[in-house]
Design a protein that fits this description.
The complex is a heterodimer of chains A (625) and B (313).
Chain A: E1 7-20, E2 23-36, E3 40-44, H1 51-59, E4 66-75, E5 78-79, H2 85-91, E6 96-99, H3 103-106, H4 113-124, H5 128-141, H6 147-152, H7 160-173, E7 178-182, H8 190-207, E8 210-215, H9 218-224, E9 227-232, E10 235-241, H10 242-247, H11 252-260, E11 309-311, E12 317-319, H12 330-333, E13 350-363, E14 369-383, E15 388-392, H13 399-407, E16 414-419, E17 422-423, H14 429-436, E18 439-442, H15 446-449, H16 456-460, H17 474-487, H18 504-517, E19 522-526, H19 534-551, E20 554-559, H20 562-568, E21 571-576, E22 579-585, H21 586-591, H22 596-603, H23 617-621
Parallel strand pairs in A: 3-8, 3-9, 6-7, 7-8, 15-20, 15-21, 18-19, 19-20
Antiparallel strand pairs in A: 1-2, 1-4, 4-5, 9-10, 10-12, 11-12, 13-14, 13-16, 16-17, 21-22
Helix pairs in contact in A: 4-5, 5-7, 7-8, 17-18, 18-19
Chain B: H1 16-26, H2 33-57, H3 59-62, H4 100-136, H5 138-152, H6 156-167, H7 171-198, H8 201-208, H9 213-249, H10 261-270, H11 277-303
Helix pairs in contact in B: 2-4, 2-11, 4-5, 4-7, 4-9, 5-7, 6-7, 7-9, 8-9, 9-10, 9-11, 10-11
The chains are: A alpha/beta (625), B mainly alpha (313).
Chain lengths: 625, 313
């Protein structure tokens, strides 16, 4: 990569002001950075940090009520703010290309890839005789195996990774000066993410494109970007060379972000937790100084009034008062976590005995052709009291089906499911019901899992209403709700609130509290932190560890995130295509993987150490079947 | 690569929610002008329906004459403000010298009774089947949907005519025939809504907590479908008023000694060349009332939709 001094995009003191019903708030405050040709800038932050707003600002697609009130923004020598809207829109797709987050919804489902490509190339002014060749050339360049066939397909016939590669090919087809990639791999599997990222990096190198990569993953940014900008509540809190930022983060928020993600290697440490949450747009008006100050572990009185910018010789810039930088929080960030205590073989709380699950689909006009799909091949699993077991694998590997079997949502095609020693596949309804109360689930999407018309109190104690339990009076219910509320760490005043009035992390806490209400022996947690920001994820993970210790509950954690599994679980199963390919104690499996698939999964995770090259070279050559 | 659509239900991780939250946290609520217009609809519709309801309730006190009193000295007199009008008959009289205003006021009683009771009946019956079909799915859903399809294949006017002829005249039979014709409207629309709610994890959560089916239907699903049902109810009121007017126009609705708007139109039809007022006012009454119901329904649809409600923090 040749660093070039020619600046593609530069922002100088740009402030974006939002007008909220008469009140003006700076949604983005005093942004300064410049991006040279062929360089990659990572914009990192949690949801609400203003990353997507930055992308909209650059592309000129601001929502109504948002205006740039000060600063200058230049794009290849032109003043972006002075260009009329029409001309700015002309830049989109030609000079400024965009890779969206959801590849499947970004393509028109009624158009074939050829149609989509054709329209794009027509707009770019490619003569019709050359369009097919151009499309094929660019599809080939992103290593889609059979470009000619790919062109005839519709988006739904492609996987997410393939769709994203089509979009990357389209983005580079216009030879843009600037590419904005908004969380391009967030919706994809880890293994696919690796492939797509290496593809993106390769194309970027070939075309020497300047890229703004928006991501919530600091490690990923540190590996694929030249520079990293960390954003918090509309402020650019830290900016500098990518490795420098990851290795020696100077802003307390960057440190928190770095340490809030569990590691895949090295000593186990307790995740530090930031108090509260990022302020919303309307709360920003009350924070004239450092917007991170209310959550900062080392903030003093001066922080809430003033914000200082300091620059190190190598360009590493931080917006923070002097007090924050001492790193007084480092000791807390490095607190060791004892390894999970192994569980002695008592009788298991739940057991799958050679259980399998086959989905049958009927095709043909009268459904005469019956085809089976083995979601779970014969599978055995024992979970002991108080044990945390993890199941990892890509989406479609059958890990959720295992959960569905345990929960009794699906009946096994073959084999048996035992809960607390009772066979729930062949028991009487009453036995089954009693056994089922021992297993509770925490859902993946807390939004959908909570009835929006129930108050938090009634949600937490929902299990008390279940058939078969004696009715409880209001006072008893309130008492139980209060106990659960303090168990899961919800604020005291939230019992009368409704789910729409809670933050994502709080909703997930309600979700956990509801599962605890029935005093289960086993909790099944299906991807429960994948929708949460890392700092909220850290809170939830610590909560689960605490609950496991206090209540001796077993947990079956289903996740695609290996580091989360390592943080919580003492035992892990690696699943692929409905089969367990490897299992054993977590540390052993992750430090010394036997199966090549496990190795692939581990390599797909960007390392904590910025010196280890990622994405791995081999992954770039692998082609999706 | 495995085609995701054929793989497992609910197995795709939804990391996207984190990032859409980003846009949501910083994006402003949608422009408000459209919303204000909708809320105007709501209030205008509510005012019209309330006005008609007050007329119906207080008809005996408001009406200057008995609606059936014939005054053969004042046949076909024009409204009071026109030449030859009589202040005693503000909206004029019909061909038998009956006061048009009084007849309109009494007619609103029939119209509203039919509207409310028939819409309620169709709503309860249709929604009940819809919830059962949407909740249980499978063969129950297929059976109910098939019945709805079959039912809807009859031309609705013919169906209500056949019903009225076999049931005989009378307001309760009008109501019954509207319920029997129009429950399918509710059933179709509410079923679709129930099927969406059914997919929510909180319904699965309630099932896993061992709640009875009835309890889940009443406590988890009904509240979610209720706003839609209220909206449909309001729209159905308008439909019921039109159908009742149609049936009374052809003399199949109420007995001859009862005043209804459709009857008034039918009576005025004979003398429409001499005087338009007898025809004009009942038509106007129907149009305004039905419009009121529709505006109210449209306004309620927006007001009761939680997605259009601003997020309370």
């Amino acid at each position: 990569m040749m660093p070039n001094s020619e600046s593609v995009l530069s922002l100088q003191g740009v402030t974006l002001t939002a007008n909220l019903g008469g009140q003006s708030v700076s949604a983005l405050r005093d942004l300064n950075f410049s991006l040279a040709r062929g360089r990659v800038l990572g914009v990192v932050g949690e949801s609400g940090a203003g990353k997507s707003m930055l992308a909209r600002l650059i592309s000129g697609l601001l929502p109504p009520g948002f205006d740039v009130t000060s600063g200058a923004m230049r794009f290849v020598g032109r003043d972006l703010l002075a260009i009329p809207t029409r001309q700015r829109r002309e830049l989109l797709g030609r000079q400024i290309a965009f890779i969206p987050q959801e590849p499947l919804t970004a393509l028109n489902p009624l158009w074939t890839i050829a149609d989509t490509f054709n329209e794009h190339l027509t707009r770019l002014g490619v003569p019709s005789s050359q369009r097919l060749d151009t499309a094929l050339r660019f599809l080939e360049s992103v290593q889609l195996a059979t470009p000619a066939q790919m062109l005839r397909r519709y988006p739904h016939q492609l996987s997410g990774g393939q769709c994203q590669r089509v979009l990357i090919a389209m983005a580079f087809a216009s030879e843009p000066a600037l590419l904005i990639a908004d969380e391009p791999t967030t919706a994809l599997d880890v293994v696919t993410q690796t492939r797509v990222m290496s593809m993106l990096a390769e194309q970027q190198r070939q075309h020497a494109t300047a890229v703004v990569l928006i991501t919530h993953d600091l490690r990923l940014a540190a590996h694929v970007c030249d520079d990293v900008a960390v954003m918090y509540a509309g402020d650019l809190v830290e900016y500098g060379p990518a490795r420098d930022v990851l290795d020696t983060p100077r802003h307390p928020y960057t440190r928190a972000l770095k340490y809030a993600t569990p590691d895949l290697t090295g000593p186990r440490r307790r995740l530090p937790v930031l108090k509260q949450q990022m302020p919303g747009l309307s709360a920003l008006a009350d924070l004239p100084g450092c917007r991170f100050a209310p959550r900062c572990p080392s903030a003093d009185a001066a922080c809430s009034h003033a914000l200082q910018h300091r620059v190190a010789p190598n360009g590493h810039r931080v917006s923070c008062s002097a007090a924050c930088e001492h790193g007084a929080d480092t000791a807390e960030l490095q607190a060791a976590l004892p390894p999970p205590t192994p569980v002695d073989d008592a009788s298991p709380v739940a057991e799958l005995r050679e259980a399998s699950l086959t989905y049958y689909t009927r095709s043909g006009l009268f459904g005469q052709h019956k085809t089976g799909f083995d979601a779970v091949k014969p599978f055995s699993l024992k979970v002991y009291p108080g044990e945390f077991v993890g199941i990892v694998g890509e989406s479609g590997s059958g890990k959720t089906s295992v959960a569905r079997l345990l929960m009794g949502i699906e009946q096994p095609t073959e084999g048996r499911v035992l809960i607390a020693g009772a066979d729930v596949t062949h028991g009487t309804p009453k036995q089954v019901r009693r056994a089922r109360e021992q297993v509770q689930i925490i859902f993946q999407d807390p939004q959908s899992a909570l009835n929006p018309r129930r108050s938090v109190e009634r949600l937490l104690t929902q299990a008390l209403e279940a058939a078969g339990l004696p009715a409880v009076d209001a006072a008893e219910r309130r008492k139980r709700a209060l106990a659960l509320q303090s168990d899961v760490g919800l604020p005291a005043d939230c019992l009368t609130r409704f789910p729409t009035q809670l933050s994502g992390g709080q909703k997930q806490r309600v979700n956990i509290g509801r599962a605890l209400c029935a005093a289960p022996a086993l909790i099944v947690a299906d991807e429960i932190v994948s929708g949460l920001d890392v700092s909220v994820q850290a809170q939830i993970l610590n909560l689960l560890l605490e609950l496991g210790r206090e209540h001796q509950i077993a947990l079956l954690l289903i996740s695609h995130d290996l580091s989360v599994v390592r943080y919580l679980c003492s035992r892990v199963l690696v699943m692929r295509r409905g089969e367990v390919v490897e299992q054993g104690p977590t540390e052993e499996v992750f430090s010394n993987p036997k199966h090549p698939y496990t190795r692939t999964l581990i390599e797909a995770v960007p390392s904590d150490d910025a010196r280890i090259a990622w994405p791995p070279v081999a992954a770039g050559e692998a082609r999706a079947a | 690569m495995v085609d995701k659509s054929s793989s497992l239900p609910a197995s795709l991780p939804t990391l996207s929610s984190a990032a859409t939250g980003a846009a949501g946290a910083l994006a402003r609520p949608a422009p408000k002008r459209g919303r204000r217009l909708r809320s105007l609809n709501l209030w205008l519709g509510a005012a019209i329906v309330l006005g008609v309801a007050l007329c119906a309730i207080f008809a005996p006190w408001l009406a200057p004459h008995d609606p059936l009193d014939q005054d053969l000295l004042h046949m076909l007199s024009p409204p009071a403000w026109m030449a030859g009008g009589d202040i005693a008959f503000p909206l004029g009289t019909d061909s038998l010298g009956r006061d048009v205003l009084s007849r309109l006021l009494y007619g609103s009683r029939i119209a509203l009774t039919v509207a409310v009771v028939a819409a309620l009946g169709a709503g309860v019956f249709g929604s009940l089947l819809a919830i059962v079909a949407g909740y249980f799915g499978g063969w129950v859903d297929r059976a109910i949907s098939y019945l709805v399809d079959l039912w809807m294949s009859f031309p609705p006017v013919v169906l209500s005519l056949v019903l009225m002829v076999s049931l005989g005249v009378g307001i309760e039979n009008v109501i019954l025939s509207i319920v029997l014709v129009d429950w399918t409207r509710f059933c179709r629309v509410v079923r679709a809504e129930v099927m969406v709610v059914r997919q929510r994890d909180y319904v699965l959560a309630a099932q896993l907590m061992n709640f009875s089916h009835l309890r889940i239907m009443l406590r988890e699903i009904l509240p979610a479908a209720l706003p839609l049902m209220i909206t449909l109810f309001s729209l159905e009121m308008g439909v019921a008023i039109t159908v009742e007017a149609l049936l009374s126009f052809i003399g199949l609705s109420v007995p001859a000694n009862v005043t209804a708007w459709g009857v008034m139109i039918a009576d005025a039809r004979i003398s429409m060349h001499e005087s338009m007022s007898g025809l004009l006012f009942p038509v106007l009454a129907i149009v305004i009332t039905v419009l009121g119901c529709n505006l109210l329904g449209d306004g309620l649809r927006v007001a009761l939709d939680p997605r259009m409600r601003t997020k309370g923090n």
